[in-house]
Design goal:
169 residues; 7 helices; mainly alpha; DciA-like; GMP Synthetase, Chain A, domain 3
Length: 169
Amino acid sequence: MRSSSFFSYGPGTRPARGPAKKTAQGVTDFLRANDKMAALLPAITRMAALQQDCSAILPAMFDACSVIQFEAGQLVLSTPNAALAAKLKQQLPKLQEALLQRGWQVNAIRIKVQVRKLVEKAKPVKQLKLPPQAVSALASLTEALDDSPRNQALKDALSAMVNRHRRAR
C-alpha cells in the first residue's frame, strides 16, 4: 500500500519546503524513508555499480546499453538495436573476463534488444534580431503602402513583425 505522504499530495497538503530537487541524495533519502522501498536500495546500488563497470570496460559501445538484471551469475544487458547487439556479442568474452577480475561473479551474459522510443529534442526556432533602423524602415513601409485589399495582408504581416521586434527590445 502506498503511503500518501510520499507519493501524492492533496490540495494544501504539499510540504512547506521549496520545490523538490531531483538529486541522488534526495532519491536515496526517499528510498530509506519507506520500508518496502528501502529493500530496493542495495539492489539499485549494485546495479548502478555494475553499469559503471561495464561502461568502463566497453566505453564506446556501452553508452547506449544498460544492465537490466543480474541474478545467480546471469547478467542480462539491453541494447537499443540488433546491430549493436551483434557488436556487443563479439565483446562478451572480454566483458565477462574484465568483470570477473573486478570481483563480479558473472557466469553468463545474455543480450536483449529493447527498442526505445527516441525523444528528439525540439530545436529552438532561430529568431532574427533586426536593428532599430530596419524596424523603423518596415514601419514606414507599412504606412507608405496603399490601403487596398491586395496590400492588406502584407500590411498586417509587416505590422505584426514590427510589433514583435519592438516588444523584444
